[in-house]
Structure formats: structure tokens, C-alpha cells
Amino acid sequence: MIQWRIDNHVDTILNDQSAISRIELFEKLVPTAFHGHTKAYQRLYIEKPDQMNIDEILKTFIIEEMIQGHIYCLEYNCQQIRDFSRQLGQHIETFVVNPPTVFPVIWNMIKHYFLDPVTKTKIHVLRKGHETTETLLEYIDSEQLPCEYGGNCHSCSTSPDCLPNINQPKLLRYLLKYHSFI
Question: Which domain range does residue 147 map to?
């Protein structure tokens, strides 16, 4: 695991100017959004890989760039979670909703061999349905939760009608506004 981080420059990727310059284009093709907050005022981050513009991604990026772009976004979000967790003095919950069929196999391997027990308790894997809605509403007010997950928010950037083709570089604007390394 450590060698993988070294090989992929994960620990320095947030300061890599070439990676930062590709994020704007990458996020236009990979539907993601920061949306609202939990009951504990933790920001919600939603990613919908099933709605990616695969044809355009394959025309625009080579495989290594796609991997680096995804690593950048994940590392950025992990940094945000760590920072917010320290500020709150508590762990941040993560929900994986409606993962692909192969995910449980991969998840079982990862959680048993690579995650410590504390981290495992912070990650919830949920299939879409009534139980998923109930679980999410324990952590998120219905006004903050998009309707597709059982909430009452119908007009947000994570709505199914709005997210698939993001035209504004939201993540990059956020980074430019709040981080001096850009």
C-alpha cells in the first residue's frame, strides 16, 4: 500500500501543478459535487461514476491521466475529511450508495486486509432502497439529501438532471478560493 502511494505520487499530488491544471477538464467529465451538509454540519460530497461521459474521457485522457485525476479527487476529499475530523474532534462517516455488483468482493478484501478497525466503522456500504434512505436520514436532514436518495432536495447540483454534464469547474473554483498552493 505504501509503495503504491509512492509510485503514484499520492502524497504530493495536491501540490502538483500539472495535475491541478487537468482537474478542471477532468471534473467536467466526471460527475461530482459538494452538496449541503450532514446533521453534524459535515459537507456532503457526491460522486456518480455511472454517469461519466466515457467516450469523451477516453478521447481526452490516457489511462494514467484518468487514474491520476481520480487519485487527486480522492486525496483532496480525504484531506478535507481529515481536516474536518480534527476540527470536530470526531470521525467522519462515509457512505457508498448503490455500488456496482463487483464492489462487495473488492470491499471485503480491502476491509479485511488493508483497513484498521476504526476506519471500517466509519464506512457504510448501502444498496439503494428503503433501508438506505432510513440510514442516510439518520445522518442527513431530508432538506439536505437529494430526492434520488430519499430526501426532499429536488433542485440541487446533484439532481439527476443537473449532474451528468457539469459545465462549471466547481472543485477547481473551490480549490482556488480556499487553498494557497494553487
Answer: 2-178
CA dihedral (129, 131, 134, 138) positive or negative:
negative
Residue 140: count other Cβ atoms within 10 Å of its Cβ.
24
For the chain, give the mean pLDDT: 78
Question: How much is the pTM?
Answer: 0.66
Radius of gyration of the chain (CA): 17
Number of domains the chain is built from: 1
Residue 109 is part of a domain; what is its CATH number? 3.40.525
| CB 120, CB 8: distance < 8 Å | no
More confident residue, 142 or 48: 142
Instruction: Give the per-residue pLDDT at 140.
Output: 92
What separation in angstroms does the CA of 124 have from each of 25, 91, 164, 168, 174? 30, 13, 24, 30, 27
Q: What is the pLDDT of residues 78-94, one digit of tens each?
A: 888 788 778 777 777 88
Torsion of CA 47, 171, 75, 30, to 10 degrees: 40
At 124, give phi and psi (nearest 5°). Answer: -120, 125
Element (DSSP H or E) covering residue 142: none
